[in-house]
Specification:
By secondary structure, the chain is α+β, with helices and mostly antiparallel strands. It has 16 helices and 15 strands.
Length: 416
């Protein structure tokens, strides 16, 4: 195994921001093809249906990288006609959007989930057969098509014994994760399911990569997401890529065959790795560009740069928790808060809330890191104003309302 390349922490930060297509942000061409370019770089997009800030997680990821991004650009690749779809939803790191042509390397999700839910589907065989037949005869449907099924069960997302899920919804979810059904389209938060062979070309659906190759590909997809990953990354980052010893052996093999390059970052204990294809980006970011004017963007909470919270904390000095599932009295900031990236620094966080009825973007809160002097940074206020303008255009807001705090009033005046 080759010795790790030694790089400074500043170099690592510049590299990460550049390879994540955030240097500068919103710089890819305003066209649907840019969606595919983003996914080609980062491997997959984590899907989450919450739209509290005016957009879903994957749309936030794409907005931060594509000029004038519109959500229908991703939807056309996900939910277009058979043969035109280039993306598919399945479980990789949680529910994810992955390239359709990589499906033979992601079928492991279907295999494992199908095994996990085999007993459940056998117990509800009658309902499962009814769902299959209905979709085959009538076309894509949501769970609303089975309102006459009153039976409810405890499902994995139910918090406790006081909550339950409609059986039809659970069975359709099980058929989806097992690869029998796919998501034909979404209307708001509602999924419409169809038979998978109507959504995926037959030649692609019939291809199966050997399981070791699928696990290898899945591990590489996490490297594509993080960009500077350790073999012993946090469990939520490496879920489904084997045990720690297995992952270390696989990592050694990827280094041996030239897929990964080991890197030792100043101040970090663990050796990390970059994709060999991104070596030119590492070389290009060795020196800071003194003439570069930093820009501001708001990052998605489940975006790939935020996957490895331990890396963000140790390299950028930024502690971030997505507090959606934290009880309100225990939250330090807000419900759906986005990190603020300024150049290659995390300088704070913002909680935007879009109100469609009035076309208003409410900034419920904005918080800055200790020591960051926002009004004394020569480029920060104009960069923040531009980021807000781009965000308003993205979600469709016509005005911004700031919080009635000293910081809110100060920034409202400065960015007006």
């Amino acid at each position: 195994m080759s010795d790790p390349r030694q790089i400074s922490a500043d170099h690592a930060r510049r590299f990460l921001v550049r390879r994540h297509l955030l240097d500068p942000p919103r710089s890819l061409p305003p066209e649907p093809a840019s969606v595919l370019r983003v996914i080609d770089r980062i491997g997959s997009l984590q899907f989450d249906p919450l739209e509290v800030p005016g957009a879903r997680n994957h749309d936030l990821v794409l907005h931060a990288r594509i000029e004038g991004y519109r959500r229908e650009w991703a939807d056309q690749w996900l939910y277009g006609p058979l043969g035109e779809r280039r993306l598919v939803e399945l479980y990789n790191k949680m529910l994810s959007i992955v390239p359709m042509d990589e499906l033979p390397y992601y079928r492991l999700s279907w295999t494992r989930m199908g095994s996990n839910y085999a007993e459940f589907l056998a117990e509800h065989a009658g309902l499962a057969d009814r769902i299959r037949t209905h979709i085959r005869d009538e076309g894509p449907v949501s769970t609303a098509a089975f309102r006459d099924v009153d039976h409810r069960i405890q499902w994995w997302w139910d918090n406790d014994e006081t909550t339950s899920t409609k059986a039809a919804r659970a069975v359709m979810e099980a058929l989806f994760v097992a690869g029998e059904l796919g998501i034909s389209r979404r209307e708001g938060s509602r999924r419409y399911y169809d038979l998978i062979d109507r959504l995926v070309p037959a030649d692609l659906l019939g291809r199966h990569a050997p399981e070791p190759e699928q696990v290898r590909h899945r591990l590489i997809s996490r490297h594509r997401g993080v960009g500077l990953m350790a073999a012993s990354a946090a469990a939520e980052v490496v879920w489904g890529t084997g045990t720690t010893p297995e992952r270390k052996l696989m990592t050694a093999s990827l280094i041996e065959d030239g897929t990964l390059i080991p890197v030792q970052v100043e101040g970090l204990k663990e050796t990390r790795h970059i994709l060999a294809d991104e070596w030119p980006i590492l070389k290009a970011t060795e020196q800071a560009d003194p003439g570069r004017v930093p820009a501001v963007t708001f990052l998605a909470p489940l975006g790939p740069l935020m996957w490895d919270r331990r890396l963000v904390r140790s390299l950028f000095g930024f502690e971030y928790i997505w507090e959606v599932y934290v009880p309100q009295p225990k939250r330090r900031h807000g419900y759906y808060v986005l990190p603020i990236l300024y150049g290659d620094r995390f300088v704070g966080r913002i909680e935007p809330r879009y109100e469609r009825k009035t076309g208003t973007l409410h900034v419920l809160g904005i918080w800055f890191e200790a020591g960051f002097k926002r009004m004394e940074e020569p480029h920060f206020v104009p960069a923040l104003a531009e980021a807000l303008r781009a965000y308003r255009s993205f979600v469709g807001a016509s005005k911004t309302i700031w919080p009635r705090t000293r910081v809110g009033r100060e920034l409202a005046r400065a960015t007006r």
